[in-house]
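Holo prediction. Input below; ligand is guanosine-5'-triphosphate.
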Amino acid sequence: MDTMEIVIIAILCIAVGVALIALALHMNAKRKQAQSTNQPQSAAQSESVEQSQALSADTSQQQQQTQQAQQPQKQPQTQSTQPNAAATEHGSQPQEPESIASRLTRLKAKLGSSANPLGKALFNILTQDNLSEEDWEDVEDTLLLADVGAEASEQLVEELRRDARIHGERDPQAVRDMLKERLLDIVGRDTDRSLVALREDAGQPSVIIMVGVNGTGKTTTAGKLARLFVAQHKQVVLGAADTFRAAAADQLVTWGERSGVPVVRSEKDGADPASVAFDAARTAQESHADVLIIDTAGRLQNKANLMDELGKIRRVVEKTTPVEEVLLVLDATTGQNGMMQAKVFAEAIGITGVVLTKLDGSAKGGIVVNVQRELGVPVKLVGLGEGPDDLAPFDPQSFVEGMLA
Ligand SMILES: Nc1nc2c(ncn2[C@@H]2O[C@H](COP(=O)(O)OP(=O)(O)OP(=O)(O)O)[C@@H](O)[C@H]2O)c(=O)[nH]1
Ligand SMILES: [Mg+2]
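Structure of the complex:
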């Protein structure tokens, strides 16, 4: 082999080596490219799956809207907001609602720390030696001041006097226990306060209509209640049947966005509330929701007007699904005045439960007793503030312990 042949073989070897290196580099580049395009694809895919799941509750509404868009002669009456999409758009996600156990602990602490005159005053009088007739009158006055109501106050004093005679207790702990037992009796320790919507059976949405005088907290409570159901893994639809002003529906939409719950509303001020309620019932039915919560207006001139409007809402909803729960929202700070208005609502539509709002702050807890006596329905929920999770099921034990804390 001469020098020339050796040189040619060496050149060939180098050329093959270069070709192999080039091939390896090319393959590597292709693999990296494939990786970088695959990742966003799968993220986009999962996002679209999530979105389609989140919006699946609204499919029927969207179909309805599409149909309406194809038939412009039929003006769309209502529309359903898509909270998850809206929340993402604004860069915020619905917050996780607080658990019921944690709410009850807060209820107790809030009641204990609020300026509640009932427990403390009673306790101060009852731990004195030799209670005079005047002292017992003070006990009764204290109960009246705390909105317990005349009849119930009298009954409670009678029972406490009997207890005192029998036991002759002056030991603070014994007096506290005695008070607790009597208050629990009068508040109703075994009353069924469960919301019909939480009973497991259904197959169709449970409907809750919120009623009450304006400013008591209907819209706020509807929003908080939606979160309470979401915390229990229920699928919820909100219906904005307060059509007096667009702001009322906007307020409900904001609550819907906070919890990822769709809201059926009308864009028109002064639209027929019953027609919004009807559309909300149909949306809830078609999307297989567990619960439909309907917010109503509080500003109605007279009882006939009220009966007419609330009666119509109930009737149209019942074309789709039965109305199992009508919750009267009552502001605990309005005392006797609120009670009178509450009676009118109770007569106009019939109520199945009471939500007592604004029990935080300086509210007088005794109104629970009065409300239940006067209206003949249990207090089922209590509002403890303006926060999204400041609503808790009414628990007599926590309530009474909170008052006597
Ligand atoms: N402190 C406190 N404020 C509450 C509570 N519930 C509601 N509110 C406040 O009460 C005010 C009225 O509440 P809304 O929910 O708008 O009352 P509404 O009954 O829907 O009023 P209308 O729509 O005008 O009939 C708002 O400022 C709420 O934040 C509560 O439990 N505690
Ligand atoms: Mg309202």
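The mean pLDDT is 77. That is the main takeaway for now.
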